[in-house]
């Protein structure tokens, strides 16, 4: 199980790296923030993570555009229900399409664009209370890795980037992940 779940974090990280390479404007902003908060310190701590507000927006935007498994959230329906005017009988398995929900134009302006600033001064989070952003699922069967999955991403991105730049960090991360997968 641990092997699989570390793989999930590395897949998300890979998408994040790709988005940073595709969006040099965002990458520069992230590098600047990391430089300001971490500088050349040999270690980063929880206080540093708390101060990287832009990186958090970037991570949220990455979760929005690239949910790990678009149909990973599944539920069995316990009783007859009605959803959006459709009657659904008890028992069938319901696949919740996070990919479509997180690109829904009525919830997100310019949904196809990687625009991290949309999360600045925005209460929407991925903790399972805002149903327009559900990369970790929701409710009792939601992902228990929520507590540290995003933290792992911040650490993985910020440490290598503050020293050796993105390309080097990509290689380093891939090597690092390779030791776990
Ligand atoms: C960025 C990383 C991760 C993402 C995006 C992610 C996403 C998800 C999603 C969407 C689900 C289904 C939730 C639902 O049905 O409501 C899930 C389930 C689960 N995740 Fe994660 N996950 C991540 C990392 C982790 C980590 C690091 C761990 C553990 C160390 C973990 C452990 C689990 C377990 C045990 C379940 C099954 C929960 C259940 O069925 O009750 N995940 N994950």
UniProtKB/TrEMBL annotation:
Binding annotation for heme: 143
One example GO MF annotation: monooxygenase activity
Pfam families from the UniProt entry: p450
Record lineage: Eukaryota, Viridiplantae, Streptophyta, Embryophyta, Tracheophyta
The name this protein goes by in its record: Cytochrome P450
Family: Belongs to the cytochrome P450 family.
Statement: the UniProt record of this protein carries the keyword Heme: yes
PANTHER family, A to Z: CYTOCHROME P450 71AV8-LIKE, OS08G0105600 PROTEIN
Record flagged with keyword Transcription: no
Swiss-Prot/TrEMBL cofactor(s): heme
Residues passing through the membrane, by range: 146-167
The entry's keywords: Heme, Iron, Membrane, Metal-binding, Monooxygenase, Oxidoreductase, Transmembrane, Transmembrane helix
InterPro entries, A to Z: CYP450_71D, Cyt_P450, Cyt_P450_CS, Cyt_P450_E_grp-I, Cyt_P450_sf
């Amino acid at each position: 199980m641990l092997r699989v779940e570390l793989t999930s974090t590395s897949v998300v990280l890979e998408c994040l790296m790709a988005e940073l390479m595709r969006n040099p404007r965002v990458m520069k902003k992230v590098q600047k923030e990391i430089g300001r908060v971490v500088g050349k310190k040999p270690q980063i701590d929880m206080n540093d993570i708390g101060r990287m507000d832009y990186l958090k927006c970037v991570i949220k935007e990455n979760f929005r555009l690239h949910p790990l498994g678009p149909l990973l959230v599944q539920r069995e329906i316990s009783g007859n229900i009605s959803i959006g005017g459709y009657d659904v009988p008890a028992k069938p398995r319901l696949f919740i399409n996070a990919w479509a929900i997180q690109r829904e134009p009525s919830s997100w302006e310019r949904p196809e664009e990687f625009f991290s600033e949309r999360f600045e001064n925005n209460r929407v989070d991925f903790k399972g209370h805002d149903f327009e952003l559900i990369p970790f699922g929701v409710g009792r069967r939601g992902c228990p890795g929520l507590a540290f999955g995003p933290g792992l991403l911040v650490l993985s991105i910020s440490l290598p980037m503050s020293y050796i730049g993105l390309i080097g960090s990509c290689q380093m991360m891939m090597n690092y992940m390779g030791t776990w997968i």
